Amino acid sequence: MFKRIFGGFAVIILSIGLTAQTAAARDWYRAESAHFIVYSEDTEQNTREFVQDLERLDEVLRFMTGVGSDEALPESTKVTVFRYGQTSDMAVLAVGNRNAGIGGFFIPRASGAVAFVPRQFNVRRGRSRQQDVDSEMLLEPRGILFHEYVHYFMFQHRDAPYPLWYSEGYAELYSNLRFEEDGFVIGDVPTWRSASLATIPIDLEATFDPPRERDRYTTGRTYAHGWLIASHLDLNPDRRGQMATYIQAIVAGHPPMEAAEMAFGDLDVLHEELEEFRQGAARTLRVPYVVEADPPVEIHRLNEAEEARMRLMINSKAGVDEDEAQRWVREARRLVESYPNSAAVLLAATEAELDVRNYDAVEELAQRVLAIDPESTEAAIYYAEAAFRRSFTDPSQLEVARDRFIDANLMENDHAYPLYRYYLTFLFDENLEEPPEGARAALEQAFRYAAFDAGVRSTLVYHLLMENRVAEARVVGAEYLSGNSTRACVTRARFDLFEQGDTEPLMEAARPDHPGEYLDEDAREARREADREEFEAAAEEYGCEIDD
Predict the structure, then answer these.
(1) Cα distances (Å, whole numbers) of residue 91 to 15, 96, 122, 208
(2) Suppose 339 and one of 305, 378, 428, 504 were both cysteines; which one would form an S-S bond, judging by CB atoms 3.0 to 4.6 Å apart?
(3) Which run of H or E residues covers position 498?
(4) Distance (Å, rounded) from C-alpha 463 to C-alpha 459?
(5) Which residues, in sequence order, are CB contacts of 54 under 8 Å at separation 6+?
(6) How many Cβ atoms sit within 10 Å of the Cβ of residue 475?
(7) Over residues 383-399, mean pLDDT
(8) Angle (CA) 201 203 206, round 5°
(9) What does R_g of the chain's alpha carbons equal in angstroms?
(10) Alpha-carbon distance 21 to 121, whole Å?
């Protein structure tokens, strides 16, 4: 898919660590468990243990949040993890610069959430012992994924307008989860935040209602003090449940500090408790596993064709720009010639052809996959997507796409993406005043399965506004409304105008773009500039300060 820098709640965790590791024989394995699919270039045993740790994390989160094991999600919501190489490989994949300091990243989307993590830190040889970085002070690759999976899990199961300090602090709380023989330990101090915890003074107002301009303490307060407060609220029985009250107050429109006083009581008392906590021992919680047996994992070594397409698959899933798309599609066509009967290769090539907008090839390859594997929902989605993208210039393709998304839905009726796209085929149909009831139900169902997808969420906001369900639109779009950014200020003003009867500014801003529209770089830059000027004019009109 085309590169998006990087929308939604996820994405990049920085890692500056360097530590050498012993080389071992490695192959590519595919491992699948209840909630994850992992492609790992490692030993079979290491891959299995990595997946089991991920499943234990999911178990812990379900236990701590009260999400029952019977609240199963569709197969399509399994996170696909690509685990290989070193931290520098993640930086190259994300931004093309091996020195960018990116230790891994996560992309949540309805078509399939993906994560990319290194097998190990960068290896540098020839250093003295004194030059080695203490690995205990680093966020290890597993911790990167743990942190991001918490965000994904909370959007999926406990969707709410969490403030940034809590969202990141809560994720930090689980990033260094410790597994023991018979249970887990939560609450250990994240050593990579120790310096911030020790040196940055606690300032509840600066954390709960941060100033518009970032300073040298902003990151520390968000992550380190976020961890401190989240730990105190979640692991202290006397404070448990107060965070829910805080969120309710924020949703009701109370300012952050007022909401904090309503939920946490005397903030001077909270400050004293946090200072005592910071200077004392970590407050850990030991809990036995709900299921003692190791989580089951199905694992197999990739065959020659499956392994050959891994780099193509990784780059397509991570996102490519136009130059990269042209380069990788040449590799895709070479692989198709070498492995013409491999469904895995054909699927990877289908996505590569979609990235260069070669819709004839997309349809031809998707049909070849379906001839090999008639139950391939992914191939059916690509087949439908080709028609949908064409509909931007040929509206007659909307009905074709609609029928094909129905076919994909029949294969897997709880997959969010066909439901979401089915709705859009009606939204972009100029012959209709509004989508029919069945399409509206499909969108709401898609949101239930993929609340983490920014496109699904923003489209639902637009749909709710079409039906004048403004209060619900505010709840679903709460993340766009909260905070001190210019965008949040402008969005709040447009919501207020909508309720006063001036609906056009908000509806125009909220309406989804057609995915089939193509602009070259000059046209994209011209549009960005026009959008920027229009946005700044709106901010000035509404009295919103412009972000630096």
Answers:
(1) 10, 6, 11, 32
(2) 305
(3) helix 486-499
(4) 6
(5) 33, 35, 36, 38, 81, 145, 149
(6) 16
(7) 98
(8) 125
(9) 24
(10) 8
Question: Collapsing DSSP states into helix, strand and coil, what is residue 135?
Answer: helix
Helix/strand/coil for 234: helix
pLDDT (tens digit, 9 = 90+) per residue, 85-106? 988 899 899 888 888 777 888 8
Summarize pLDDT for 160-208 with one digit per residue, the tens.
Answer: 888 999 999 999 999 989 998 889 999 998 888 989 999 999 999 999 9
| Amino acid found at 325 | A
The strand pairing partners of 288, in sequence order, are: 183
Q: Which helix (H) or strand (E) holds 349?
A: helix 343-355
- Residue written as token pair 């008639």: 374
**What is the tens place of the pLDDT at every residue in 3-31?**
432 233 334 444 433 333 444 557 999 99
Helices and strands (H and E) in the chain: how many = 26, 10
Q: Which long-range contacts (C-beta less than 8 Å, at least 24 apart) are formed by 120-126?
A: 120/19, 120/21, 120/86, 120/87, 121/15, 121/17, 121/18, 121/19, 121/21, 121/86, 121/87, 122/17, 122/18, 122/86, 122/87, 122/88, 123/18, 123/19, 123/20, 123/21, 123/86, 124/18, 124/20, 125/20
Two tokens at 374?
Answer: 């008639």
Q: Token pair for residue 491?
A: 């969005």
How far apart (Å, rounded) are the C-alpha atoms in residues 494 and 364? 45
To which H or E segment does residue 458 belong? helix 454-466
Residue 189 and residue 110 in contact, taking contact as beta carbons nearer than 8 Å: no
| Residues 119 and 83: beta-carbon distance below 8 Å | yes
3-state SS of 365-404 is HHHHHHHHCCCCHHHHHHHHHHHHHHCCCCCCHHHHHHHH
Strands (DSSP E) found in 447-510: none
**Taking all residues of the chain, what is their mean pLDDT, rounded to a whole number?**
88
Residue 13, helix vs strand vs coil: strand
Note whether 153 and 58 are within 8 A (CB): yes
Among 19, 172, 3, 175, smallest CA distance to 86 is for 19
Q: 19 burial class (0-12, 13-18, 19+ CB within 10 angstroms)?
A: middle
Q: Which residues contact 338 (CB under 8 A, 6 or more apart)?
A: 305, 308, 345
**8 A C-beta contact, residue 250 and residue 161:** yes
